[in-house]
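This section describes the prediction task in plain terms. A model, or a person checking by hand, is given the sequence of a single protein chain and must write out its three-dimensional structure as a string of tokens. No templates, partner chains or ligands are provided. The sample shown here is typical of the held-out split.
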Amino acid sequence: MDALKPHRLALALVALCVALPTVALGARPQSATGPAAPASNSTTYTDSTGEDPAGPDITTIVVSNDDGGGLTFRVNVPNRPQLTSDIALLVSLDTDANQATGDPQAFGADYAIQLLGGEALLFKWDATTNNYLLAATQSTLSYSWSSGATIRINASDIGNTRKFNFNVIVFSGVVLDPTTGNVDFTNSHHDIAPAVGLYPYIVKIGPPQLAVTSFTHAPATPVAGRAFTLRLVATRSDTGAVLQNGQVVCVGRSGTVRLTATVHRVSGGAATCTFQIPRKAKGKRFTGSDTIVFEGQKASRSFSGTIH
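The expected answer:
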């Protein structure tokens, strides 16, 4: 696929909409209705229907994101249950919410997601060449089709955007020359949402949750007069990375006597709590907990056992 294909689609979009005023935002999101089930931080945009009886008809677009920055665009086109070879789709994304940057003929679009010839590709606007070029990273882009497109991409592949504007155009009757890559719109029909301008969307990402992936203690049982260590390994829900820092809170008791941790820090990727078991504590019960606190979230585990 050459880099001109999304540009051709974008130019077709502009040509179809040239009579419309250029505005920052078009139709506003409405309440969640339609066949798509809303997801986390989900916004549903309702499009007018029946504009072209011969063309594809967008009814709703549902955009959602998760705490890892994963974006999902569900474009409902009920009168196109199957993805046929004549269908093309373009999502134009103004990822910096600034029409003064990006493609001047597409409301300042900085990226374009193109579905054409059964392949989804991500392109980035290049001001130097005044064209869309294949994006350097698009590893998170995927799609499926069932009465419309479901497109998934992570915000990390589109500039880590947290606020963007977008529109969607769906064509039918497109003829794609597999040899030259030329796209013929002569007998095509289309539907664009919104009819004027762009839809706004805000990416909302909550704080990362912490998951305990390992909790160990050494030795196997606490021993009077010896050190006893608890080690807790936790990972972030958004990145899967093992925590390498944070506040470690250690609580230990020998019977009813509170013990002060001699070590309470992250060491080797583990929240480490070390207690010195009193020499005369044999037969008593040791109870302790190991907690790591990071960005307001915490993960904790506890241990209880007889001191030998």
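For orientation: Confidence is low (pLDDT under 50) at residues 1-5, 10-39.
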